[in-house]
Specification:
The protein has 166 residues and is an alpha+beta fold. It has four helices and six strands; from the N terminus they run H-H-E-E-E-E-H-E-H-E. The protein has a domain of 99 residues. Helices cover 37% and strands 26% of the residues. Strands 1, 2, 3, 4, 5 and 6 form a six-stranded mixed beta sheet that branches.
């Protein structure tokens, strides 16, 4: 053998050894990454991790809540009474798990069959007195500063959504 081929053989052996060590068992010859490989996580993986951490810190509480809703094209503010809702799942003391369902209930009640869009917010706490103060402050601020006409909705009742519906 001539000395010219020795570096070529050395490079060839290095390439073969690197490719053999880089292969994982069960991995195809396709150079794309398999699920779970690489530095980036998928959106599903991140949401699963977030839900697992929230479920770990979640608990069932009896809370007091009220809803406020208004339309972007109208100057009317709808505010419900403060109500006690039993056995609501609260994650990390900040988030009601069925928040979207409670907002939809109030929006559907206020809309009353019309096709107008409303923005609805749910306020909650474990203390009734805190919610009464928050409701009074919201009404006072929006009546004075934003010029909303107040409509108090007293015939509305929150219904706890069925947890088996998920």
């Amino acid at each position: 053998m001539r000395p010219v081929f020795k570096p070529f053989l050395a490079v060839l052996m290095l390439m073969l050894s690197l490719s053999a060590s880089a292969q994982r068992s069960g991995r195809t010859n396709d150079p794309t990454l398999n699920r779970g490989e690489g530095l980036e996580k998928t959106r599903d993986d991140l949401s699963k991790m977030r839900n697992q951490s929230q479920n770990k810190n979640s608990r069932q509480e009896n809370i007091y809540m009220f809803a406020a809703s208004f339309s972007l094209i109208d100057s009317v503010l709808f505010v419900s009474d403060v109500q006690k809702v039993d056995d609501v799942i609260v994650n990390n003391k900040w988030f009601v798990k069925e928040r979207a369902s409670f907002e939809t209930q109030f929006t559907d009640h206020v809309r009353g069959g019309f096709n107008e869009s409303y923005l609805t917010s749910i306020y909650f706490s474990e203390k009734s007195q805190k919610m009464n103060k928050r409701r009074a402050k919201l009404i006072k601020r929006n009546a004075r500063k934003n010029g909303f006409n107040l409509v108090q909705v007293s015939d509305f009742k929150f219904v706890n959504p069925d947890p088996q519906a998920e």
